[in-house]
Amino acid sequence: MAVRVRIPTPLRKFTGGQESVSVEGNSVAAIIDSLESGHPGLRERICEDDGSIRRFVNVYINGDDIRFLDNLESAVKDGDEVSIVPAIAGGR
After folding, report:
1. Dihedral (Cα; 62, 66, 72, 78), 10-degree rounding
2. Is the distance from CB of 19 to CB of 42 less than 8 angstroms?
């Protein structure tokens, strides 16, 4: 099943500048595996060494935060959109 993954600007160097890529998978974990397979280096920017999503990276399925779903085991289906959004902090 094809899922569209929106890639944030800082990570587009791994996708040849593409703002979105189409990958196969039935869960967020499988989508990350597919991303890494086609675009090496993305996983370590998205995930910690133990495989969990980095604290300051947010992942959404059709606008829903996976932390409020089943996290990495959140199901995705054909045509879904997964967005990777780095958190932004700072300022005064």
Report:
1. -10
2. no
Q: Does residue 43 fall inside a structural domain?
A: yes
pTM (predicted TM-score): 0.90
Q: If DSSP states are collapsed to H, E and C, what string results for 53-84?
A: ECCCEEEEECCEEHHHCCHHHCECCCCCEEEE
pLDDT digits (tens, 9 = 90+) for 20-38: 999 999 999 999 999 999 9
Which of 84, 90, 27 lies closest to 57, judged by CA? Answer: 84
Q: How many structural domains does the chain have? A: 1
- Structural domain of residue 10, as residue ranges? 2-86
Give the CATH number of the domain where residue 64 resides. 3.10.20.30
66-80 average pLDDT score: 96
φ/ψ of 48, rounded to 5, equals -75, 175
Residue 91 and residue 64: Cα distance in Å, rounded? Answer: 26
